[in-house]
């Protein structure tokens, strides 16, 4: 007995004194390294997403060496958890760490990254808790574990730090800092091992590109996915949906796809996934009727199965210990479950022409999903399943459409690492216009897409401002599920709303090109300003005063640019918010022009604008070439050829490649695409002239180019 006690004491001593280890980095693609800490778990976000790196594109991006800053990184298994530590330099800025809504800068924050509905705080509970941080020094670090990952991003100070903060005296020193300088990112993964990836790059954008390309490149949506979409109220019937479509048409508002909310099924919350025959007596005819009018159908679901579903009995043995809204929770990682969903969804939906899904409620709030103690037949815990459930549904459904050689583009409320190539856009129930724009900025660091959907508004001003933002996002969506708001509901701004929706349609070639860059080069279509060359604004920290009612040490206020962003290479979007007549816009170095007038707006400056209600402020980079189509009501069909108006801004020569393909299938992956060369050059008199080299290819859908030189 004595002997045994002695042994166990010795054992605990060994654990306590376990040594930190350096990582054994292994290059896995050009500019990408992987290392293991402890023994990683089998299921991880990247394994669920089933990523296939685009190695050719990664090679094209170059072969940078391993980031010197990360040489001193260490890991250790302690207390059945994995501890990771990565060095930080003094001036370094950090971005990413999940889909955040409040700030772009993440240095000096603590997060417990986990899938959940965003609750109003950037604390790690979010729809895409991608454990990836991007440094402005030109590297990124990804922790690939399906766990709640706790990150101290430049927070903790070790007593053996080589760059410790100075000890100060609050009594006498007014610059005493409640959050002393920290020289490391420390991460705790509650599992005895994890994979860690490092992405290198000459700047933050190149790092993001490498991450996206490593995950297979960004998604290239079908063209219709980039048009306008309206979601109809919950219990609408087929007839009412058709009336809604007619109204859009008659009033001249564009519509490319329409979303049906819960009432299309006989049972929902939990779901049976079967059409309700009273509201939709002939679903096939209904869907075909819309397709004939060039309008796609998207179906709302959540994955929880009602006892009335045809798959209920067969799926039951493969479900978790807990229910959600009294529906069973299938273990989506198991092939028999995947087969059951595929069979039912193919027969009920894809087979009759449905084009995509809105996959709801895979995120939380905690109160309705399963607890951590839930168990799933695959052996996954509740905690693990939570981190990958939404991702798994995205992957699974993407596969169904791929097999039909048909692209889809849908909505999800839960995602994670590995998602760039998956055809889903994140949305939520939170509804703060400003924070929605910050989320747009932040989506660009972590390989996800976000829509700042419009639902309703208190005033027509707010409605217009929200609709303007929506039209400059990855999915231009009005989600009218609850109160049936229409684009024209606020009569006094109905024309302005229409004009921005039509502008969205006109910009489709530009937008599609931006998404082609996402796919082929890994460049996100929406980008935070911090990813833009020539952006000079450095985040500052301002300290408030100590006080006794709030936490006296929670006084840091971050100043960063989170209310403007880039859309594609040339457009800077600066949304207006209700109640504001003026705003500041930070223009990076180089000339920037007003989109609507072509006039010079500034160069490397913070400008104050008073734009009026009519337009969303848009600024265009020097030399920009912007291809546009006429203001169409539906996305152009597969064989439709349209004329192009190509705008040029500024005074400099430039050229762009304009990408095109059939806009619907995956044939582009086998090379069925074409690119035109659009160039602007000065003639002998120094006057700018445009020329176009159009490819002779069925994949190219534009002819008759008209040039517009916007800057006089
Ligand atoms: C919510 C979702 C809304 C809407 C609603 C319908 O969970 O976020 O967009 O779909 O369900 O019940």
CATH architecture of the largest domain: Alpha-Beta Barrel
List the domain count as a whole number. Answer: 3
Unique ligands? beta-D-galactopyranose
Mean pLDDT: 95
Count of DSSP E strands?
Answer: 37
DSSP helix fraction? 10-25%
In brief:
By secondary structure, this protein is of the alpha+beta class. It is built from 13 helices and 37 strands.
Walk me through this protein's architecture.
The chain has 712 residues and is of the alpha+beta class. It folds into 3 domains: 21-159 and 178-214, Immunoglobulin-like; 223-508, TIM Barrel; 625-709, no CATH class. It contains 13 helices and 37 strands. The strands form 8 sheets. An 8-stranded parallel beta sheet has the order 22-21-20-19-16-15-14-23. A 7-stranded mixed beta sheet has the order 1-4-5-12-11-7-8. The chain has a 6-stranded antiparallel beta sheet with strand order 2-3-13-10-9-6. The radius of gyration is 26 Å and the shape is globular. The termini are far apart. Mean pLDDT is 95; it is low at 1-17. Residues 234, 261-262, 300, 360-361, 429, 479, 481 line the site of beta-D-galactopyranose.
Question: Top keywords for this entry?
Answer:
single chain; 712 residues; alpha+beta; Immunoglobulin-like; TIM Barrel; 3 domains; eight-stranded parallel beta sheet; seven-stranded mixed beta sheet; globular; disordered N terminus; binds beta-D-galactopyranose
């Amino acid at each position: 007995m004595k002997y045994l006690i002695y042994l166990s004491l010795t054992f605990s001593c060994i654990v306590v004194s376990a040594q930190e280890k350096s990582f054994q980095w292994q290059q896995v693609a050009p500019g990408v390294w992987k290392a293991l800490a402890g023994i990683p778990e089998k299921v991880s976000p990247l394994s669920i997403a089933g990523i296939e790196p685009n190695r050719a594109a990664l090679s094209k991006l170059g072969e940078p060496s391993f980031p010197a800053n990360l040489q001193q990184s260490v890991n250790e298994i302690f207390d059945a958890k994995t501890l990771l530590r990565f060095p930080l330099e003094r001036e370094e800025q950090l971005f990413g760490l999940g889909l955040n809504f409040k700030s772009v800068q993440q240095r000096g924050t603590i997060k417990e990254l986990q899938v959940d509905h965003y609750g109003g705080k950037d604390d790690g509970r979010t729809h895409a808790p991608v454990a990836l941080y991007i440094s402005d020094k030109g590297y990124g670090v990804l922790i690939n574990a399906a766990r709640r990952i706790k990150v101290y991003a430049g927070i903790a100070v070790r007593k053996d730090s080589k760059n410790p903060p100075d000890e100060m005296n609050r009594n006498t020193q007014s610059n005493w800092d409640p959050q002393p300088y920290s020289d490391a990112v420390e991460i705790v993964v509650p599992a005895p091992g994890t994979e860690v990836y490092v992405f290198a790059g000459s700047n933050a954008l190149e790092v993001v590109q490498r991450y996206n390309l490593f995950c297979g490149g960004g998604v290239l949506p079908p063209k219709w996915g980039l048009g306008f979409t309206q979601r109809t109220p919950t219990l609408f019937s087929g007839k009412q949906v058709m009336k809604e479509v007619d109204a859009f048409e008659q009033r001249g508002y564009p519509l490319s796809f329409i979303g049906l909310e819960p009432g299309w099924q006989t049972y929902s919350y939990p779901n049976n996934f079967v059409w309700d025959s009273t509201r939709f007596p002939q679903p096939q005819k209904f869907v075909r009727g819309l397709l004939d009018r060039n309008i796609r159908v998207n179906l709302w679901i959540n994955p929880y199965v009602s006892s009335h579903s045809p798959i209920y009995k067969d799926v039951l043995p493969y479900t978790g210990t807990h229910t959600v809204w009294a529906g069973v929770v299938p273990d989506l990682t198991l092939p028999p479950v995947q087969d059951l969903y595929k069979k039912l969804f193919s027969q009920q939906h894809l087979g009759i022409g449905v084009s995509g899904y809105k996959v709801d409620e895979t995120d939380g709030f905690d109160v309705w999903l399963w607890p951590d103690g839930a168990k799933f037949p695959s052996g996954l815990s509740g905690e693990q399943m939570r981190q990958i459930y939404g991702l798994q549904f995205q992957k699974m459904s993407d596969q169904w459409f791929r097999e039909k050689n048909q692209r889809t583009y849908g909505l999800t409320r839960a995602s994670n690492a590995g998602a760039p190539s998956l055809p889903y856009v994140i949305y939520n129930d939170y509804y703060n216009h400003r924070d929605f724009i910050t989320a747009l900025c932040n989506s660009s660091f972590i390989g996800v897409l976000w829509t700042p959907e419009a639902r309703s508004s208190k005033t027509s001003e707010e409605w217009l401002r929200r609709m303007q933002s929506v039209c400059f996002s990855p999915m231009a969506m009005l989600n009218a599920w609850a109160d049936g708001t229409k684009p024209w509901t606020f009569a006094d701004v109905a024309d302005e709303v229409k004009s921005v929706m039509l502008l969205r349609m006109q910009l489709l070639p530009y937008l599609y090109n931006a998404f082609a860059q996402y796919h082929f080069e890994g460049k996100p279509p929406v980008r935070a300003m911090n990813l833009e060359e020539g952006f000079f604004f450095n985040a500052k920290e301002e300290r408030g005063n100590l006080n006794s009612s709030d936490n006296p040490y929670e006084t840091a206020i971050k100043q960063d640019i989170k209310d403007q962003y880039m859309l594609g290479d040339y457009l800077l979007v600066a949304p207006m918010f209700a109640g504001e007549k003026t705003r500041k816009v930070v223009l990076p170095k180089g000339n920037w022009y007003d989109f609507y007038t072509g006039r010079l707006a500034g160069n490397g400056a913070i400008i104050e604008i008073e734009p009026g209600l009519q337009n969303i402020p848009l600024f265009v980079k020097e030399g920009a070439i912007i291809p546009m189509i006429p203001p169409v009501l539906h996305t152009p069909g597969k064989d439709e050829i349209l004329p192009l108006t190509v705008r040029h801004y500024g005074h400099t020569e430039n050229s762009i490649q304009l990408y095109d393909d059939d806009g619907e299938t995956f044939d582009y992956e086998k090379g069925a695409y074409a690119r035109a060369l659009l160039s602007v050059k000065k003639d002998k008199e120094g006057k700018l002239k445009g020329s176009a080299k159009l490819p002779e290819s069925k994949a190219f859908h534009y002819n008759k180019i008209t040039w517009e030189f916007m800057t006089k």
